[in-house]
DNA sequence: AACATCACCAACCGCCCGGAC
DNA sequence: AGTCCGGGCGGTTGGTGATGT
């Protein structure tokens, strides 16, 4: 007995928006604003779409001043810092990045930054095992979040090389897992001397 | 060239919260 | 005070182009 859906299934179009639909929505919102409710908007505008779908399309794509394209290193840094601070509160994070949407930030994190963070962690561990030079990295009490927080993104490329060069033997790469459905989060972490729950809680 | 796999991103789903009644 | 409804949000999925075999 869930709540009623916001629109009748079967009577609304789903899937990618056509240029025509975009034009109708854009024109309507620019002329009338979001007068009333999003639920009522598609009927008024003559769109066979769910109100929520219209809202999402407007906010993520049609709204003025939306920034598309590559994220800058500076933006990456902001996302890293805010993620460490707030976790996956994408709207909060996106609000600090003018022109970026929560969906954009979320996708960017899931496809790029999560992997970067993972590599950074592995690289930090590799360095500690090979060189045993950083007292920060020696004990179980080590706060790796600190390390990650204070490592510039620009260092990651170098650390990536370290990982590739040394081929950490205790790490088994996940199978062909792609995107957010990869298998890292479900597998036993790399049999190292740090508690699995600690590592997982930091990385995923 | 054909097929398989990967990576990315737009869009959907469903839950939660707050305002209106 | 309780219920309803819409907006907002985060998680997830499906489609598609790129890359590898």
TrEMBL record:
Q: What processes in GO biological process is this protein linked to?
A: regulation of DNA-templated transcription
Q: Which GO terms describe its molecular function?
A: DNA binding; DNA-binding transcription factor activity
Q: Which PROSITE patterns match?
A: HTH_MYB, MYB_LIKE
Identify the InterPro entries for this entry.
Homeodomain-like_sf, Myb_dom, SANT/Myb
**Which residues does the UniProt record annotate as the domain HTH myb-type?**
9-62, 63-117
Q: Which GO terms describe its cellular component?
A: nucleus
* Domain Myb-like stretches: 9-62, 63-113
Its localization reads: Nucleus
Q: Which CDD domains match?
A: SANT
> SMART domains under this entry?
SANT
The entry's keywords: DNA-binding, Nucleus, Repeat, Transcription, Transcription regulation
Report what the protein is called.
Uncharacterized protein
């Amino acid at each position: 007995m869930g709540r009623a859906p916001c629109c009748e299934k079967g009577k609304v179009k789903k899937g990618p928006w056509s240029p025509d639909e975009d034009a109708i929505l854009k024109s309507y919102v620019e002329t009338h604003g979001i007068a009333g409710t999003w639920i009522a908007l598609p009927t008024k505008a003559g769109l066979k779409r769910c109100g929520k779908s219209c809202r999402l399309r407007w906010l993520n794509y049609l709204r003025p001043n939306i920034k598309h394209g590559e994220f800058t290193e500076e933006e990456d840094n902001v996302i890293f810092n805010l993620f460490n601070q707030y976790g996956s509160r994408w709207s909060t994070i996106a609000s600090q990045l003018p022109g970026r949407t929560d969906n954009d930030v979320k996708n960017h994190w899931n496809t790029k930054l999560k992997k970067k963070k993972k590599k950074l962690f592995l690289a930090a561990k590799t360095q500690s095992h090979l060189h045993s030079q950083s007292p920060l990295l020696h004990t179980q009490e080590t706060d790796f979040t600190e390390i990650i927080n204070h490592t510039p993104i620009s260092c990651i490329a170098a650390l990536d090389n370290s990982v590739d060069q040394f081929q950490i033997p205790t790490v088994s790469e996940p199978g062909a897992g792609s995107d957010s459905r990869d298998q890292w989060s479900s597998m036993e972490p790399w049999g190292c001397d740090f508690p699995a729950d600690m590592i997982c809680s930091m990385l995923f």
